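Teaching note: in complex prediction, the entire set of molecules is handled at once rather than each chain in isolation. The prompt given to students was simply: 'Predict the structure of this complex.' The entities are:
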Amino acid sequence: DIVLTQSPASLAVSLGQRATISCRASQSVSTSSYSYMHWYQQKPGQPPKLLIKYASNLESGVPARFSGSGSGTDFTLNIHPVEEEDTATYYCQHSWEIPLTFGAGTKLELK
Amino acid sequence: QVQLQQSGAELMKPGASVKISCKATGYTFSSYWIEWVKQRPGHGLEWIGEILPGSGSTNYNEKFKGKATFTADTSSNTAYMQLSSLTSEDSAVYYCARGTTATRYFDYWGQGTTLTVSS
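The expected output is the structure of the full assembly:
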């Protein structure tokens, strides 16, 4: 199984600053055309919400302050500028092969 | 619009079985995977497996083989997950989600079904 290691486990960021979350895969999840890595936001009591697909493609309706990058085994989710409503837990997920797996999550709080 | 409506919370005894439903509206049910995900406090998100309603094809996470069974009824646009031989380790929130056929990102999610296993 592909293991996704997210870091940090938690971070505190001031309003208006940048939050950077890393996700490292135990093997490559990219081809020359696509990276099969996706990002979700989950708030307490709610299901996860898709933010970014294929590593860098913003899902419709998601604010442009969210961005994703990376390929191969290393991926990053950036949020800038951070707003109060962004306090949540963020997960990466690969779809390279079965079984699909998720990272352990990164909890974002405001400083 | 696309919606996935799950059945309500369940309280079950150890050793019993439970069937959770996920009713889909707003899209062609047969053409997308229905994914099932488990979430326990402190355990993050676990992919249980998936079913493609149009064909009945299924894929299971090895960890959940023998525990979970997926079915789908295209006449009612409803997918089901049965969990058997319940233990306290099965207590969790279970989500269904829509998975794209080309690649499995989950673009729509149900609201979640809370399962509590207790004697």
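Point out the following to students. Chain A has a mean pLDDT of 97. The radius of gyration of chain A is 13 Å.
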